[in-house]
Amino acid sequence: MIDKIEEFALNILERIKLQKLANLYREHREGMRYLIFGGLTTLVNIVVYIIFAKVILASIQDMNLVVNLSEIIAFILSVAFAYITNKLYVFDSKTENAKQLLREIVSFVSCRIFTEIISIVMMNMSVWFSINDVLMKVVSNIVVIILNFVFSKIIIFKNTSKK
Prior knowledge:
The protein has helices spanning 2-15, 19-27, 29-56, 63-90, 98-128, 133-156. It is mainly alpha-helical.
Protein backbone atom coordinates (compact mmCIF):
# COMPACT_ATOMS: atom_id res chain seq x y z
CA MET A 1 0.00 0.00 0.00
CA ILE A 2 2.74 2.47 0.97
CA ASP A 3 4.66 1.57 -2.19
CA LYS A 4 1.62 2.41 -4.33
CA ILE A 5 1.02 5.74 -2.60
CA GLU A 6 4.72 6.54 -2.91
CA GLU A 7 4.82 5.72 -6.63
CA PHE A 8 1.63 7.73 -7.21
CA ALA A 9 3.24 10.77 -5.57
CA LEU A 10 6.48 10.26 -7.50
CA ASN A 11 4.54 10.02 -10.78
CA ILE A 12 2.87 13.33 -9.95
CA LEU A 13 6.29 14.89 -9.37
CA GLU A 14 7.43 13.59 -12.75
CA ARG A 15 4.31 14.93 -14.51
CA ILE A 16 4.86 18.40 -13.09
CA LYS A 17 8.43 18.37 -14.36
CA LEU A 18 10.15 17.57 -11.05
CA GLN A 19 11.94 14.47 -12.34
CA LYS A 20 15.14 15.30 -10.44
CA LEU A 21 13.26 15.43 -7.16
CA ALA A 22 11.54 12.10 -7.90
CA ASN A 23 14.90 10.54 -8.80
CA LEU A 24 16.50 11.93 -5.63
CA TYR A 25 13.70 10.37 -3.58
CA ARG A 26 14.12 7.01 -5.32
CA GLU A 27 17.91 7.07 -4.76
CA HIS A 28 17.44 7.76 -1.05
CA ARG A 29 14.12 6.01 -0.46
CA GLU A 30 15.01 4.62 2.98
CA GLY A 31 16.19 7.99 4.31
CA MET A 32 13.23 9.81 2.76
CA ARG A 33 10.79 7.35 4.30
CA TYR A 34 12.55 7.78 7.62
CA LEU A 35 12.04 11.55 7.41
CA ILE A 36 8.38 11.21 6.40
CA PHE A 37 7.51 8.73 9.13
CA GLY A 38 9.62 10.72 11.58
CA GLY A 39 7.47 13.74 10.80
CA LEU A 40 4.33 11.66 11.33
CA THR A 41 5.77 10.36 14.62
CA THR A 42 6.33 13.95 15.74
CA LEU A 43 2.73 14.73 14.80
CA VAL A 44 1.49 11.72 16.80
CA ASN A 45 3.56 12.90 19.78
CA ILE A 46 2.16 16.43 19.67
CA VAL A 47 -1.46 15.41 19.05
CA VAL A 48 -1.45 12.79 21.83
CA TYR A 49 0.16 15.30 24.21
CA ILE A 50 -2.52 17.92 23.43
CA ILE A 51 -5.38 15.41 23.75
CA PHE A 52 -4.19 14.28 27.16
CA ALA A 53 -3.06 17.67 28.51
CA LYS A 54 -6.00 19.73 27.25
CA VAL A 55 -8.87 17.23 27.21
CA ILE A 56 -8.45 13.98 29.15
CA LEU A 57 -6.43 15.33 32.09
CA ALA A 58 -7.71 18.93 31.93
CA SER A 59 -9.64 18.65 35.19
CA ILE A 60 -6.49 17.88 37.21
CA GLN A 61 -5.31 20.98 39.09
CA ASP A 62 -1.62 19.99 39.38
CA MET A 63 -0.11 21.23 36.09
CA ASN A 64 3.18 19.43 36.70
CA LEU A 65 1.29 16.15 36.93
CA VAL A 66 -0.73 16.95 33.79
CA VAL A 67 2.36 17.90 31.79
CA ASN A 68 4.42 14.92 32.93
CA LEU A 69 1.66 12.33 32.46
CA SER A 70 0.78 13.76 29.05
CA GLU A 71 4.45 13.78 28.01
CA ILE A 72 4.99 10.17 29.12
CA ILE A 73 1.86 8.92 27.35
CA ALA A 74 2.76 10.87 24.20
CA PHE A 75 6.31 9.46 24.29
CA ILE A 76 5.08 5.87 24.70
CA LEU A 77 2.52 6.08 21.89
CA SER A 78 4.84 7.91 19.51
CA VAL A 79 7.64 5.40 20.12
CA ALA A 80 5.19 2.55 19.43
CA PHE A 81 4.08 4.29 16.21
CA ALA A 82 7.72 4.91 15.23
CA TYR A 83 8.68 1.28 15.86
CA ILE A 84 5.84 -0.10 13.75
CA THR A 85 6.39 2.29 10.84
CA ASN A 86 10.18 1.89 10.92
CA LYS A 87 9.90 -1.90 11.04
CA LEU A 88 7.31 -2.22 8.29
CA TYR A 89 7.87 0.71 5.94
CA VAL A 90 11.34 2.20 6.43
CA PHE A 91 13.69 -0.71 7.09
CA ASP A 92 11.43 -3.60 5.95
CA SER A 93 12.50 -5.63 8.97
CA LYS A 94 11.72 -9.34 9.08
CA THR A 95 11.98 -11.26 12.34
CA GLU A 96 11.85 -15.04 12.32
CA ASN A 97 10.78 -15.66 15.90
CA ALA A 98 9.55 -14.04 19.10
CA LYS A 99 13.08 -13.78 20.51
CA GLN A 100 14.28 -11.71 17.53
CA LEU A 101 11.16 -9.55 17.70
CA LEU A 102 11.64 -8.93 21.42
CA ARG A 103 15.33 -8.07 20.89
CA GLU A 104 14.34 -5.62 18.16
CA ILE A 105 11.65 -3.96 20.31
CA VAL A 106 13.89 -3.71 23.38
CA SER A 107 16.76 -2.22 21.39
CA PHE A 108 14.43 0.25 19.65
CA VAL A 109 12.87 1.44 22.91
CA SER A 110 16.26 1.56 24.67
CA CYS A 111 17.77 3.67 21.92
CA ARG A 112 14.76 6.02 21.93
CA ILE A 113 15.00 6.43 25.70
CA PHE A 114 18.73 7.14 25.34
CA THR A 115 18.15 9.82 22.70
CA GLU A 116 15.30 11.31 24.77
CA ILE A 117 17.75 11.65 27.67
CA ILE A 118 20.21 13.39 25.34
CA SER A 119 17.43 15.76 24.30
CA ILE A 120 16.53 16.51 27.92
CA VAL A 121 20.19 17.17 28.79
CA MET A 122 20.56 19.47 25.77
CA MET A 123 17.40 21.38 26.74
CA ASN A 124 18.69 21.77 30.28
CA MET A 125 21.98 23.05 28.85
CA SER A 126 20.00 25.88 27.29
CA VAL A 127 18.97 26.89 30.81
CA TRP A 128 22.38 26.35 32.40
CA PHE A 129 24.25 28.33 29.74
CA SER A 130 21.51 30.87 28.88
CA ILE A 131 21.11 29.60 25.31
CA ASN A 132 17.86 30.30 23.50
CA ASP A 133 15.61 27.32 24.29
CA VAL A 134 13.91 27.29 20.86
CA LEU A 135 17.28 27.23 19.11
CA MET A 136 18.42 24.41 21.40
CA LYS A 137 15.16 22.52 20.74
CA VAL A 138 15.87 22.67 17.00
CA VAL A 139 19.50 21.58 17.50
CA SER A 140 18.52 18.78 19.90
CA ASN A 141 15.88 17.52 17.47
CA ILE A 142 18.44 17.40 14.67
CA VAL A 143 20.87 15.48 16.90
CA VAL A 144 18.11 13.07 18.01
CA ILE A 145 16.89 12.45 14.44
CA ILE A 146 20.41 11.66 13.25
CA LEU A 147 21.16 9.42 16.24
CA ASN A 148 17.84 7.58 15.92
CA PHE A 149 18.51 6.90 12.24
CA VAL A 150 22.05 5.66 12.94
CA PHE A 151 20.89 3.48 15.84
CA SER A 152 18.05 2.09 13.73
CA LYS A 153 20.39 1.34 10.84
CA ILE A 154 23.34 -0.20 12.72
CA ILE A 155 21.80 -1.62 15.91
CA ILE A 156 18.05 -2.20 15.68
CA PHE A 157 17.25 -3.12 12.08
CA LYS A 158 20.79 -4.12 11.04
CA ASN A 159 19.80 -7.47 9.51
CA THR A 160 17.09 -6.19 7.22
CA SER A 161 16.92 -6.51 3.49
CA LYS A 162 17.32 -3.53 1.15
CA LYS A 163 14.21 -2.38 -0.66
